[in-house]
Design a protein that fits this description.
alpha/beta; Undecaprenyl pyrophosphate synthetase; six-stranded parallel sheet; 6 strands; 44% helix; binds 3-methylbut-3-enyl trihydrogen diphosphate; binds magnesium ion
Length: 232
């Protein structure tokens, strides 16, 4: 079986999961954050090498202050409690996205874990926070222009491969499989460049119900797909 090397996940449906149970949306986020560790553990066990999850988009600032506060609170607790396991399992954690709008406490927490795990090699776990695909591409363009002005790069050097190095995922292989839970079938400004040839999978389950069996199912579906990359 040819499994995916890199999986990307849009964790969607926390709010609807809670609503269905008559609970506040924030409880949905609390449950959702609990699933993350289980999914990382299982992905690693199944031979996946990179997992990139969408936790907060550049558009999610349009939600209520209260919801945003709780979401980051749960993420902070998650990161704090996760350090030991990341080290034990040789997992590197990296955040992708803007760092200038998230509260300082959360950023500090993220940077502590990034620094601690930077030499881990068995698995890469990227967490997208205040991330937007359009921001990512714009930011890359801005940095290339700056390197051009500083005479570090010539116009001829700017190929697709070169451009990709400036994106948040840098030199990492693009995702093979994108999973978006909750039945919605859209990208919502996630990894626009990197998803160019990714296989898409849209299970109905809300994210807090996406358990290890659901991940196995997703990988099984992926292994049945025929990837063509434009060839016959
Ligand atoms: C995903 O669940 C979590 C984030 C976007 C942060 P939602 O909060 O979007 O849940 P629904 O889509 O409203 O059900
Ligand atoms: C996408 O979910 C962002 C994350 C999962 C972090 P949203 O729930 O924000 O997306 P839309 O608004 O339904 O497209
Ligand atoms: Mg949603």
């Amino acid at each position: 079986m040819n499994g995916p090397h890199h999986i990307a996940i849009i964790m969607d449906g926390n709010g609807r999961w809670a609503k269905k149970r008559g609970l506040p949306r924030t409880i949905g986020h609390r449950e959702g954050v609990k699933r993350i560790k289980e999914i990382v553990r299982e992905a690693k066990k199944l031979g996946v090498k990179i997992l990139t999850i969408f936790a907060f988009s550049t558009e999610n600032w349009n939600r209520s202050k209260n919801e945003i506060k709780f979401l980051f609170q749960y993420l902070n607790i998650f990161l704090k409690n996760y350090k030991k396991e990341l080290m034990r399992k040789d997992i590197r954690l990296k955040a992708i996205g803007r760092r200038d709008r998230i509260d300082k406490n959360s950023i500090r927490q993220v940077e502590v874990v990034e620094e601690l795990t930077k030499d881990n090699k068995s698995f890469i776990f990227n967490i997208a926070l205040d991330y937007g695909g359009r921001w990512d591409i714009t930011e890359a363009a801005r940095r290339i222009v700056s390197d051009y002005q500083n005479k570090l790069v010539s116009k001829e050097a700017i190929t697709e491969d070169f451009f990709q190095q400036y994106l948040s995922l840098g030199g990492l292989a693009s995702p093979d499989l994108l999973i978006r839970t909750s039945g919605e079938q859209r990208i919502s400004n996630f990894l626009l460049w990197d998803l160019a040839y990714t296989e898409l999978y849209f299970p109905q389950k809300y994210w807090p119900d996406f358990n290890v069996m659901e991940l196995e199912k997703a990988i099984e579906v992926y292994s049945q797909r025929i990837r063509k990359f434009g060839k016959i």
